[in-house]
Design brief:
Radius of gyration: 25 Å
Structural class: alpha/beta
Bound molecules: 2-deoxy-2-amino glucitol-6-phosphate
Number of strands: 27
Helix content: 25-40%
Length: 608
């Protein structure tokens, strides 16, 4: 899940590429590098660690170069060291390559090239690419020809940018599974793993498809599709987001900013879609498949991480409100399962980035099954939004922190509307939820107004090494998500469990050193939640509880209580999740950790 940026034009390429890499650092921050070419002369700068370190190492003499490619790395093959960082080059440093993805057959290619006398300086899979191009240059009339020959040998996933001193007026790019987008400017073109790095320069973009190879000059973009073996027309699209959204503003971190965007996130996820006064839910993105939606008798939701937990909420909602049986499957497992699929089964992929390789692979698995493929996606124009038949955008705006927060809130809000859309608009619940969706942004703000109190309680628990999160029905996925957030940003061991499962094993772990976060907001089975909390108290386990405002009884069950405004059982989990997001945030902040760039993680996981 690395980040790639490229620039060709009349401006100084290096600062543009470095700034782009900084905005893509959430894709990986193990090392960074840049290669630039000026007047046929190449310069290469690489550093292990963050982009700042790279920027400090760049020689001012490179600032005239009008052509450059850069990379920020999330290590898959080889340690996060300088010599494993990209760009990689051929021996005489005339070819430079940056790559996002995994070359699955790199060992075979390496052995073949070593047989041809090539020597390798890194442990990466990527280094085979510049040597392979070098190898084919000997039998090709142009770099483009050699590049295509090399691509045909590569197995796995790749987004590649390449430049060469032999043709300094061109930038070369190719994509298979990993995302790559071209930014169209005046006498200049940019290249990036996602539009975030382009926004400052242009909103006019060309998304490359699988097997696309692009030859880019400052004036022209020519795309050829290797699989179809012919020129490919790729239309430029205008992206409608404002780059202010992607800026930190007055917040210390993106994670806190994105948690505090919850009220606006709920509003934009329902804007123009729910009209409570008319008892109406209108999802434009599903209109093209209205007839197919009528025939769905089974829904399989596929996703990863936080999106998977949003899917679990979707399961409860769609089964309860639309009576359609739902299964939620981890996309990484779904791909390798052999299960029957009838034509009346639909598949729903949930993804913030829209680029998660496991989720894309799950969709590709059923490509020829003739089943309806739907998407709930946040990133506009992303792969999943383009390969699904229809879907609903989350409209949460760019999410920059690696730990997903506002996207989860938006995903659950969208799944609620999909459940209503598929359900019976005459039901009491339909009306109640529709009405509550209007009230939720204000209730979310009430939770944010308690941030200092949540911080006070979080600091009491920051030194524990283990944590359990429990909940029942709709609060169960919230417990799983709460545990994931704490794990991701504070590195504390945390597990989410259905409260009723405790006595079937996890209770053995409980003692005075193992606190539990119990989500116990009002529901028809609140008394059951109390008994589960009592089981923990009986083992001296400390308990922090989330409860509905006005619930005094909870105080005798828990050491600390965080109250959220009264809401429906189906919607309370949104408020509870905001509390667990803040709880995790304040613990990580108190531990002095980089909450936006947690170790070993990356924002969008573009390799299997
Ligand atoms: C969540 O905080 C993590 N960043 C991760 O689990 C994420 O949810 C998962 O990788 C799925 O990403 P997606 O929603 O972009 O597909």
């Amino acid at each position: 899940m690395c980040g790639i940026v490229g620039y060709i034009g009349n401006r100084s390429a290096t600062p543009i590429v470095v700034k782009g890499l900084r905005s893509l650092e959430y894709r990986g921050y193990d090392s960074a590098g840049i290669a630039c070419i000026d007047d046929g002369q190449a310069q290469l700068f690489k550093q292990s660690g963050r982009v700042d370190k790279l920027e400090a190492s760049i020689d001012k003499s490179s600032l005239n170069a009008p052509l450059a490619i850069g990379h920020t790395r999330w290590a898959t093959h080889g340690l996060p060291t300088t010599f494993n960082s990209h760009p990689h080059s051929n021996a005489d440093r005339t070819v430079f390559v940056v790559h996002n993805g995994i070359i699955e057959n790199y060992q075979d290619i390496k052995t073949k090239l070593q047989g041809e006398g090539y020597t390798f300086v890194s442990e990466t899979d990527t280094e085979v690419i510049p040597h392979l191009i070098d190898y084919y240059l000997k039998s090709s009339k142009s770099f483009e020809e050699a590049f295509k020959k090399a691509l045909r040998d590569l197995g796995g996933a790749y987004a590649i940018a390449a430049i060469t001193t032999k043709e300094p007026g061109k930038m070369f790019a190719a994509r298979l599974s990993s995302p790559l987008v071209i930014g169209v400017g005046k006498n200049e073109h940019l290249l990036a793993s996602d539009p975030t790095a382009l926004m400052e320069h242009t909103k006019k973009v060309i998304f490359l498809d699988d097997y696309d190879v692009a030859v880019i000059t400052n004036k022209k973009v020519a795309v050829h599709n290797l699989k179809k073996g012919k020129i490919a027309e790729r239309k430029a699209e205008l992206l409608d987001y404002d780059n202010q959204e992607a800026l930190l503003g007055d917040y210390p971190t993106f994670m806190l900013k994105e948690i505090f965007e919850a009220p606006a996130t709920i509003r934009s996820a329902t804007l123009g879609r729910t009209i409570a006064s008319k008892n109406l839910v209108k999802l434009g993105g599903l209109e093209s498949v209205t007839s197919q939606l009528e025939y769905i008798d089974r829904l399989v939701i596929v996703a990863c991480g936080t999106s998977y937990y949003a899917g679990l909420v979707g399961e409860y909602l769609i089964e309860e409100l639309a009576g359609i049986p739902v299964e939620v499957q981890l996309a990484s497992e779904f791909k390798y399962r052999n299960e029957p699929f009838s034509r009346s089964t639909a598949i729903l992929a949930i993804s913030q980035s829209g680029e998660t390789a496991d989720t894309i692979a799950a969709l590709k698995k059923v490509e020829d099954y003739g089943v309806l493929r739907l998407g709930v996606v946040n990133a506009v124009g992303s792969t999943i939004s383009r390969i699904t038949d229809a879907g609903v955008y989350c409209h949460a705006g760019p999410e920059q922190a690696v730990a997903s927060t506002k996207a989860f809130i938006a995903q659950v809000t969208v799944l609620m509307q999909i459940a209503l859309r598929l359900g019976d608009s005459g039901s009491k619940q339909y009306k109640a939820i529709l009405k509550e969706l209007d009230a939720l942004p204000a209730k979310a703000q009430e939770v944010l107004d308690q941030a200092e109190e949540i911080k006070r309680i979080a600091l009491k628990y920051k030194d524990y090494r283990d944590f359990l999160f429990i909940g029942r029905t709709y609060s169960y996925p919230a417990a799983l998500e709460g545990a994931l957030k704490l794990k991701e940003v504070s590195y504390i061991h945390a597990e989410g469990y259905a409260s009723g499962e405790m006595k079937h094993g996890p209770l053995a772990m409980i003692d005075e050193n193992f606190p539990t976060f119990a989500i116990a907001t009002n529901s028809p089975i609140l008394s059951k939640a109390y008994s589960n909390i009592q089981e923990i108290r009986a083992r001296k386990g400390p308990v922090v509880a989330i409860a509905t405002k006005g619930n005094k009884a909870i105080k005798k069950h828990a050491d600390d209580v965080i109250y959220v405004p009264d809401s429906l059982e189906q919607t309370s989990l949104i408020l509870s999740t905001m509390v667990t997001q803040l709880f995790a945030y304040y613990i990580a902040e108190a531990k002095g950790l980089n909450v936006d760039r947690p170790r070993n993680l990356a924002k969008s996981v573009t390799v299997e």
